[in-house]
Design a protein that fits this description.
- The structure holds two protein chains of two kinds.
- Chain A is an all-alpha fold.
- Helix content of chain A is 68%, strand content 2%.
- In chain A, strands 1-4 form a two-stranded antiparallel ribbon. In chain A, strands 2-3 form a two-stranded antiparallel ribbon.
- Helices cover 69% and strands 5% of the residues of chain B.
- In chain B, strands 4-3-2-1-5 form a five-stranded antiparallel sheet.
- Classes of the chains: A mainly alpha, B mainly alpha.
- At the A-B interface, helix 5, helix 6, helix 11 and helix 13 of A face helix 14, helix 19 and helix 21 of B.
Chain lengths: 370, 531
């Protein structure tokens, strides 16, 4: 008996030259150019980056993290989740709880408790608010809560080999159930209105230019970090198994791999990324409510990834910027047409652009060379 | 009250002629009734209403209409044209400045109604008798007051409609429950024990506390136990009914999906919007009938059904031909594309008809309800929707199992290449099947427009539910869909009983998620196209 030794081609470097310079440019833009244009360039200059734009770009970068997370689970593992809105909202709610506690006695009712609790005539904080005072605990919970929910749900779903559209529909049901739960006032999460009117973060006022810029930079760095992490992940052996599962799950099993730990890991990682995005989103946008868990919100995330190009890592980021840029322009300029546009985008991308924008660009490049 | 007026006058006339012994209205009585304190007025009313003469009747009638004034010691009845007559003497009196309105408080109003009902008992019309008896029975249960007992006895002694007599006997029993005579009390409890009225419970409980005799106490306890059993049964049945009603709605919403998703394997996220289109089609037909055929308005639903079916079926066929056709075998892409279609359809409806809900009126034969067992109320529109769901189900089953189209659909579903070899135009069958599923969604919309709001977002409320039903029931079979719809409806309503609507819904969703973990193969046994 001889064991045949199989040698895999060595994984390429994490960043090619082009990619390296791309990441560097992005780093420069986020950390230096944008803050300078916003803070130093006078407001009447053409190059001035308005506060509105900073807020918008920061928000879209959060969405880009979600799109990246969706891409890892859908583009690379072939599992379409319609429940990432839930993880996004969970991260956001954890952050929101901390921000609500930071309001202190400055609320409308001058009480130690958040306003909505005074309104409901509650006398003390419910148990799940116990850690909301501590920023460190909040940071931990931002990772743990979405991660744990995803892990438990994923374990049972993947163990039962729920696949394809069934998994999508089940995640949709989960998110819908959570939506209903968070709508209840008794859940202690602000019900319909969610959390808003934040005043401070870490004791510092939240609605200043400097704080906005800080959050922007943190979001940008997180996005870049997640991008590099995803790049490393998909190039690793782990990432290759994921892609093999996507393409032929049965064969992977016949090769002796158990897909469960692979799927479960990437599913949990993806959920945590979404949770972090939600936590970054809330202080920048200033509100979190159950609307983030609606079916529409989760499906839209999938479309960002699809528009940009699945199974590429730049694609979802590009897609998030394109779709949300179009959204913020169209909802102001032609509010009637936004849903037509979005609907048509869904149809057009699935029918004619399965590789997304990045795929189109690649195709044109190839044709140019040929 | 106005309706009884003529009837009362006739009655008064008959009494006046026939009996002769009628209680004549005295000035003292009139004054007591009009201007006495609370108890005096009720006493006077009861005295007068045992056997009223024409003038007493006119005064009581005027009092119910609040057309009585008091001027000094005289009681005046003011007619519609402003002329005042003395209630006792009947002479026309000039209305002075010092005339004061007579107020009728709720207590007196109740007594007046009871008095009117008591008089109605002597009306030969059985319907009037039954209504009067029912009113007396209700008021006797709410607040037993034995001051009307003599009048009741008198009515029971005469000719009565059997149902009116039963109600009256129960009213009398309620009044005699606190009687001094033990035998009477015992008889009263025995009479009441047969009734299933919820209002009876506090009455029996109060008597149980005050009761001295052991025999009556035992009887009271049995009566209470029987009553509780009856009430529990009625509330259980009512829960079952609302559950079946919800189930029938789920079934209607999911039946179309059972064909497009269950048989064809197409994930149609726009299914809810097809329901919405059916509802809007119903609304359009209703508006058309309202404006051009008001005489036939009650029958607009008969026209709306085919219109809703055809509209939704055409939209579905267009969807299949233009988009879904190119995505067979790519379910995730189908999901996204149909979601896009649903957004376009929703916004389209918003642009055409506005973002507000539109009002769909029920035809008159759908409103109202039937009451069973005293406390079980079943609304007609719910009953009819259950029947409608059953009819649609039978229609679909027959269509799939007995017709040529159904045969082709089953053939294409089970083995596309062989069906194609046999000469079936599979592409056309796909379109037909999808249009059929869409049309059934339209019918569901037609039914839903009768019980809920119709707005552009209507479909969104049903999309998750209908997918749950189809997935839970097992893909590829209609029977599973039926079980799942009814099961979910019942489960939801029974959970609602002790956890509230939202928690029940969450519990049901979690239940489905867990259930599918347990039985994925059984439920996902896909007999149709491979995905």
């Amino acid at each position: 008996m001889t064991t045949a030794s199989v040698s895999l081609p060595a994984p390429g470097p994490l960043l090619t030259r082009g990619a390296f310079s791309g990441v560097m440019v992005a780093l420069l833009v986020v950390c230096a150019v944008a803050p300078m244009l916003n803070l130093l360039v006078p407001a009447d200059s053409v190059f001035h980056l308005s506060d509105y734009m900073v807020g918008l770009l920061g928000k879209i970068m959060c969405y880009a993290i979600c799109a990246l997370a969706i891409d890892l689970i859908w583009g690379y593992t072939g599992i379409l989740s319609l429940g990432h809105g839930l993880f996004f909202a969970l991260g956001g709610y954890v952050m929101g709880m901390y921000l609500m506690r930071q309001i202190g006695r400055d609320g409308n009712y001058k009480s130690d408790l958040p306003d909505f609790m005074v309104f409901l005539d509650w006398k003390e904080l419910p148990w799940h608010w116990a850690l909301s005072d501590s920023f460190i605990a909040t940071l931990l919970l931002i990772v743990l809560v979405p991660g744990l929910v995803a892990f438990v749900f994923g374990y049972f779903a993947f163990r039962s080999r729920i696949k394809g559209v069934y998994f999508s529909i089940i995640t949709q049901a989960l998110t819908f159930a959570a939506l209903l739960l968070f709508f209840r006032n008794e859940t202690g999460m602000g019900g319909n209105n969610g959390f808003t009117d934040f005043k401070r973060i870490l004791g510092l006022p939240i609605a200043t230019q400097g704080m906005r810029m800080t959050l922007f930079v943190i979001t940008g760095l997180t996005l870049l970090g997640f991008y590099l992490f995803a790049r490393w992940l998909v190039a690793s052996k782990f990432g290759r198994v994921l892609q093999a599962i996507r393409d032929a799950e049965s064969r992977v099993m016949f090769c002796g791999y158990n897909p469960l730990p692979y799927k479960l890991t990437i599913w949990t990682i993806s959920a945590v990324m979404c949770g972090v995005a939600g936590a970054l989103y809330v202080p920048q946008v200033g509100i979190i409510n159950p609307g983030e868990m609606s079916t529409a919100a989760s499906i839209e995330m999938a479309v960002w990834a699809a528009v940009g190009g699945r199974a590429t890592l730049v694609g979802p980021i590009v897609g998030a910027f394109l779709v949300n840029g179009a959204k913020s322009w169209l909802t102001v300029a032609f509010p009637e047409f936004w849903l037509y546009f979005l609907g048509a985008l869904f149809i057009a991308v699935t029918l004619w652009m399965p590789q997304g924008v990045v795929g189109l660009v690649k195709k044109f490049k190839k044709e140019g060379k040929a | 009250m106005k309706i009884h007026w003529l009837r009362l006058l006739c009655l008064g006339f008959v009494l006046w002629l026939g009996l002769g012994s009628a209680h004549a209205l005295t000035p003292a009585d009139a004054l007591a009734l009009a201007a006495g304190d609370g108890d005096e007025r009720i006493e006077a009313l009861n005295r007068l209403s045992v056997d009223p003469d024409e003038k007493a009747l006119a005064l009581i009638q005027a009092l119910s209409n609040e057309a009585v004034k008091v001027q000094g010691e005289r009681v005046l009845i003011v007619a519609d044209d402003g002329r005042a007559t003395d209630a006792v003497s009947g002479e026309v009196v000039a209305l002075g400045e010092d005339a004061e309105d007579v107020m009728v408080n709720n207590r007196l109003r109740g007594a007046l109604e009871a008095a009117a009902a008591l008089r109605d008992l002597f009306n030969p019309d059985p319907v009037a008798q039954r209504q009067a008896a029912a009113l007396l029975q209700r008021s006797a249960l709410d607040e037993p007051d034995d001051s009307t007992l003599p009048a009741l006895e008198k009515a029971l002694a005469g000719e009565l409609d059997p149902r009116a007599r039963a109600s009256l006997e129960q009213a009398r029993a309620a009044m005699q429950l606190a009687s001094d005579d033990e035998a009477q009390r015992l008889a009263a409890v025995q009479t009441l024990a047969g009734m299933g009225q919820p209002a009876l419970r506090p009455l029996l409980l109060r008597q149980l506390e005050e009761e001295g005799s052991e025999a009556v106490k035992a009887e009271l306890r049995t009566a209470l136990a029987a009553l509780d059993r009856k009430l529990a049964l009625a509330s259980g049945l009512s829960q079952a009914f609302t559950g079946i009603s919800l189930g029938s709605i789920l079934l209607l919403a999911a039946l179309g999906l059972a064909i497009t998703y269950g048989l064809m394997g197409v994930i149609n996220m726009a299914h809810g919007e097809l329901i919405m289109i059916g509802a809007y089609a119903t609304w359009l037909v209703q508006s058309f009938f309202k404006s051009t055929l008001p005489g036939l308005f009650d029958w607009y639903l008969l026209a709306a059904m085919p219109v809703a079916f055809i509209t939704a079926a055409l939209v579905g066929a267009a969807m299949e031909r233009s988009v879904i056709r190119w995505l067979y075998g790519r379910p995730l892409e189908t999901l996204l594309a149909t979601w896009g279609i649903s957004l376009v359809l929703m916004q389209g409806v918003r642009s055409l008809f506005g973002a507000q809900n539109v009002g769909v009126e029920n035809p008159s034969w759908m409103s109202g309800s039937v009451t069973l067992m005293g406390s079980l109320t079943l609304p007609w529109n719910r009953i009819l929707i259950i029947a409608f769901a059953a009819a649609v189900l039978i229609g679909v089953t027959l269509l799939i199992s007995k017709t040529r189209l159904g045969l082709f659909v089953r053939g294409v579903t089970q083995n596309r290449p062989i069906a194609s070899c046999m000469g079936v135009n599979t592409a056309r069958i796909d379109t037909y099947a999808f249009a059929l599923g869409s049309g059934i969604a339209g019918l569901a919309g037609c039914a839903l427009s009768q019980i809920g709001n119709v707005g552009p977002d209507l479909g969104q409320n049903y999309i998750v539910d209908s997918f749950m039903v189809v997935v839970l029931g097992g893909v590829g079979q209609l029977a599973g869909t039926v079980y799942a719809a009814l099961g979910l409806g019942l489960l939801n309503k029974f959970l609602e009983g002790w956890a509230g609507a939202v928690l029940a819904k969450i519990a049901v969703l979690v239940f489905i998620i867990v259930f599918i973990q347990k039985r994925p193969q059984g439920i996902f046994a896909f007999k149709g196209r491979e995905t």
